[in-house]
Amino acid sequence: MTNDTNKQPLFAIEGLYVSVEGNEIVKGVDLTVNHGEVHALMGPNGSGKSTLANAIMGHPRYEVTAGKVLFQGQDLVGMTPDKRAREGLFLAFQYPAAIPGVVMGNFLRAALKARRGEDVPVREFRKLLDETMDLLKMDATFARRYVNEGFSGGEKKRAEVLQMAMLRPEMAVLDETDSGLDIDALKTVAEGINAIRGPGSGVLLITHYQRVLNYVKPDVVHVLYQGRIVKSGGPELSEQLEKQGYEWITGEFAPQGVAAGEGVA
After folding, report:
1. Is the distance from CB of 66 to CB of 219 less than 8 angstroms?
2. How many Cα atoms within 13 Å fall on the side-chain side of residue 62?
3. Cα–Cα dist 217/26, whole Å
4. DSSP secondary structure code for residue 97 in this structure
5. Rounded CA gap, 235 and 120, in Å?
6. Domains of the chain from N-terminus onward
7. How far is CA 143 from CA 127, 155, 189, 245, in A?
8. What's the whole-number average pLDDT of the chain?
9. How confident is the model at residue 258 (pLDDT cuts 50, 70, 90)?
């Protein structure tokens, strides 16, 4: 029997157009993530993937000129990033920033307090942190370091996944979190995604490569090209991209042949 809360999509982008400094990058994207689903968004460099991710989270540099970003039925457009985060939306950055002087453990406790809207007792927080770090096979010393300061690329991505696993967002958007990772770090990222995966949550996994999808099986795969979703399908679509490369997409959907909405699934 379907729960009433599951009758509306968890997350939906409707006719979204996004500009950066007057340049239109995202050109009419429609995408729906239902409860319990993981969607992979793939595409070549310059297709608008990171622009879409930043617009979803409300980065002020990215101007939504038309369309909606609906999360649990509420339009997020115009809402500040911190408000979106408190509502249960999470963005893992492609290039996480360092925060010198801020200890990771303190940062996570403050983030969890903001997410819950109330203080988190030290004992409860410590238990949750230890369990989460064990799940992700992370050394306990990680929590005593400054946020991303002196971290390798892989460590920064692990820190993002740790935050996600601690906060348990209803909707997680991961902007190429798998890029530049060795196999161990990639497995950590995948374990974090699979840890939050469940009937009440959703994931939009933005990636260039099929390899992370060997560990995180998506329900739906979309291809973004020239600011539009030109193809959608099951996991086999990512496998086809792996075999044929993006030349297949760029050839089939050349700019002169893509009108608004054409080829969008």
Report:
1. no
2. 21
3. 26
4. P
5. 39
6. 4-97+170-257 (3.40.50.300)
7. 13, 12, 17, 39
8. 89
9. very low
Beta pairing, strands 74-75 & 23-33:
unpaired
Supply 241's token pair.
Answer: 């991209």
The pLDDT score that the predictor gives to residue 6 is 53
Ranges of H-type helices in the chain: 49-57, 81-87, 104-116, 122-135, 153-167, 183-196, 235-244, 247-252
Structure tokens at 224: 């973004």
CB-count exposure of residue 2 (10 Å: 0-12, 13-18, 19+): exposed
| Those residues with Cβ within 8 angstroms of residue 21's Cβ, 6 or more apart along the chain or in another chain | 61
Residue 43's region, left for phi above 0, alpha for psi from -120 to 50, else beta, is left
> pLDDT tens, 99-154?
999 999 999 999 999 999 899 999 999 999 999 998 888 888 999 999 999 998 88
Closest-CA residue to 203 (of 180, 232, 233, 169):
169
Q: What is the pLDDT of residues 168-226, one digit of tens each?
A: 999 999 998 888 788 888 888 888 888 888 898 999 999 988 889 999 999 999 999 99
- Between helix 153-167 and helix 183-196 the angle, nearest 10°, is 10
